[in-house]
Amino acid sequence: MDLFTGSPADRGGLLPGDFILTVDGTNIDSGDQLTMIIGGLEAGTTHDFGIMRYGERRRLTVKIGLRDDMDKVAQDKNLWPGMTVVDLTEDIRSQANIPSGVNGVIVGNILSQQAPTAIAGLQPGDVIVSIGDTKIRNMLDYYEALNNSPRGQVVPRPPVFPPLANLTFRSPPAGPSTPCQ
Predict the structure, then answer these.
(1) Among positive and negative, which fits the CA dihedral 124, 80, 85, 25?
(2) In sequence order, what are the beta bridge partners of 85?
(3) Are 69 and 86 in contact, with CB atoms under 8 Å apart?
(4) Which phi-psi region, left, alpha or beta, contains residue 96 (left: φ > 0; alpha: ψ -120 to 50)?
(5) All domains of the chain, ordered by start, with CATH?
(6) Do the beta carbons of residue 64 and residue 41 sit within 8 Å?
(7) CA–CA gap between residue 105 and residue 142 (Å, rounded)
(8) Of the ranges 24-33, 48-57, 67-76, which one carries the lowest mean pLDDT score?
C-alpha cells in the first residue's frame, strides 16, 4: 500500500506496507471492496481499521477526510513510496540474472514519474539491498526500514553491484505547509 503524504490515511496512522483486513468489523476481500466501503463513509467520521503490519494484527482509528478535484495532497509528488516491490524469488533471480548471494527486494513498478522514488532514478528491476544502514532481505525488512526513515527526498547511494540500490532518505526542506481537509 502506498500513501499520499498528509492524507487522512497518513494522518490516521496507516503506513506503506499495511494490509487493511477490516473496516468497522467488515472483512475486506479485495481492493475494489475497500474502495467501495471507504467511498461510502461520511467525511469527518472516525472508523475502526483492522490492519496487518509487519506480520502483526493491529487496530487503528482513522478519521475520514474530504477530497475534491483540487486536492493538493493527492498529487503524485506526495505518493509515498511510489513504487511496488517484491521479494526476490528463485524464479526472479534466474530471469534477472541476480546472484544467489544477493538479498533484497526488487522494484516491480514505479507508480508515477513524479513520485520521489522515480525522481531519484529508481527503475523496475532495481534491487534494493539497504535503506540507510539497514540491510534489506525481504519485504518485511523493506517496509520496516522505509517506515522508520524520514519521508521526503530519496537519495540513492552508489550501487554495490548494478542494478542494486542502496537508499537513504532525507527530510524535505522546511517550507510552508498546505492545510489538509
Answers:
(1) negative
(2) 107
(3) no
(4) alpha
(5) 3-63 (2.30.42.10), 76-170 (2.30.42.10)
(6) yes
(7) 7
(8) 67-76
Q: How far is CA 86 from the centre of its chain?
A: 12
- Which residues are 20's β-sheet partners? 51
Q: pLDDT of 28-50, one tens digit each?
A: 998 889 888 988 889 889 999 99
What pLDDT band is residue 164 in, cutting at 50, 70 and 90? low
Highest mean pLDDT among 79-83, 89-93, 157-161: 89-93
